[in-house]
Amino acid sequence: MHTEPAARGGGRPRLSTGSELAFTGQCVVAGALFLATSGMRDDHGLGIGSAVFAAVPVMFLVVVLAAYLHRVLFTLPVMALTRALGNPWWAPLWAAALAAAYAGWAAAGWGLPYGRTLLWIAGPGVLPVAAAAYARHRSLGWTAMAARVGAVTGAALLLCAFGAFLQERTGLGAYEPPRLERGQYAGEWIGGGGAYRLRLGERGEAVAENLPLVAPAGLWDTCSGTGTWEFEPRRESGGLFDRTRDRVTLTIEGCGPMRDWQAAGTAERPELFCVVGDPGDLHPRYAETLRRL
Questions:
Q1: Nearest to 213, CA basis, from 279, 272, 278
Q2: What is the per-residue pLDDT for 4?
Q3: DSSP state, 260?
Q4: Residue 2 DSSP SS3
Q5: Do 80 and 15 contact (CB within 8 A), yes or no?
Q6: Distance CA 149, CA 146 (A)
Q7: CA 253 – CA 230 distance, rounded (Å)
Q8: Which residue, among 3, 15, 4, 146, has the nearest Cα to 91 in the 3D structure?
Q9: What's residue 219's pLDDT?
Q10: Structural contact between residues 113 and 119, judged by C-beta atoms closer than 8 angstroms
Q11: Whole-number Å distance between alpha carbons of 288 and 293
Q12: How would you label 36-66 residue by residue, b for 16+ Cβ within 10 Å and e otherwise?
């Protein structure tokens, strides 16, 4: 009769040893990779504030809770199935099939695109199951898996740090705002799920709908009206007053001072954005973005 070997360091067989560790490790590496590649994305003038690092303990707690939810939804059913079939190396395939089922349920329930939903579910879902299959095949306990996952995670973090250093030094793949001609800004711009609209005419006329105001207006105050717009190309003088992005300056009747909208996105898919909130405010700063229709 076939008996499953007991996990080292424990008195009973374990179906999912290491899955929570692998899930947590891959989330930590994903966060480090996000930070390491920040120079390759448009931060809309916000950068990475200290609030991100202050929220690390809370985010880590969320990741740990998500790891145990993953254990219930993915690892336990998959490992029980592979134990019944007697082939632990099929675990990643069963996990992929389970991810496909979850993605179909989410896509049908919330109207999400199936392909993208499958990637988001299968991406973090399959690797921890593979780690649990490895632990079961090698009869590894929690301590042994912690050492292995810690070593792999540490090596990945070192690679992220080295990659971030190289990107900062060489500028390889660094984001560059688009440089468009004035006439390319004329047209209809929309943002906030349709809440904000801006129409820029070729002759300098502008029509604004619910666009954010500057201080001392409230954080959520907006204004609508007609007026004019001016195009200001970016300026690089090598001094203190460099302007790294093109911008559109609005003058809307009855609205008072308006925020300048700066160029973002790419030349193929241009955007305009403004930063709402001031550094000294208690409210977090964020970027409102408009895209051209």
A1: 278
A2: 45
A3: -
A4: coil
A5: yes
A6: 5
A7: 15
A8: 15
A9: 55
A10: no
A11: 16
A12: bebeeebebeeeeeeeeeeeeeeeeeebeee
Those residues with Cβ within 8 angstroms of residue 168's Cβ, 6 or more apart along the chain or in another chain: 39
Count, in order, helices (H) and strands (E) of the chain: 7, 9
Burial of 265 (0-12, 13-18, 19+ CB in 10 A): middle
Is 136:88 a contact under the CB 8 Å cutoff? yes
Q: Name the token pair of 145.
A: 């898996």
How does DSSP assign 269-289, residue by residue?
SEEEEEEES-TTSSSPPEEEE
Q: What are the φ and ψ backbone dihedral angles of 190, each rounded to 5 degrees?
A: -140, 150
Joined together, the tokens standing for residue 215 give 């201080």
**Strand pairing report for 286-292 and 205-212:** unpaired
What are the mean pLDDT values of the chain's consecutive 10-residue runs (293 residues total)? 42 60 93 89 74 78 91 89 80 91 92 91 91 86 91 96 92 88 93 88 93 63 88 70 80 81 91 76 71 90
Rounded Cα distance, 231 and 167, in Å: 32
**Residue tagged 């060489």 (tokens):** 170
Class of residue 176 by CB neighbours under 10 A (exposed 0-12, middle 13-18, buried 19+) = exposed
CA distance readout (Å), 18 to 131, 152, 251, 256, 277: 6, 13, 60, 59, 44
E strand or H helix at 144? helix 142-170
Contacts of 265 (CB under 8 A, 6+ apart): 42, 178, 271, 291
Q: Which residue has the tokens 């004035």?
A: 182
Torsion angle of the four alpha carbons 177, 30, 46, 280, in this order, in degrees rounded to the nearest 10? 180
Using DSSP bridges, classify how beta strands 187-191 and 286-292 pair: parallel, antiparallel or unpaired: antiparallel
Q: Which residue type sits at 292?
A: R
Q: Tell me 75's DSSP state.
A: I
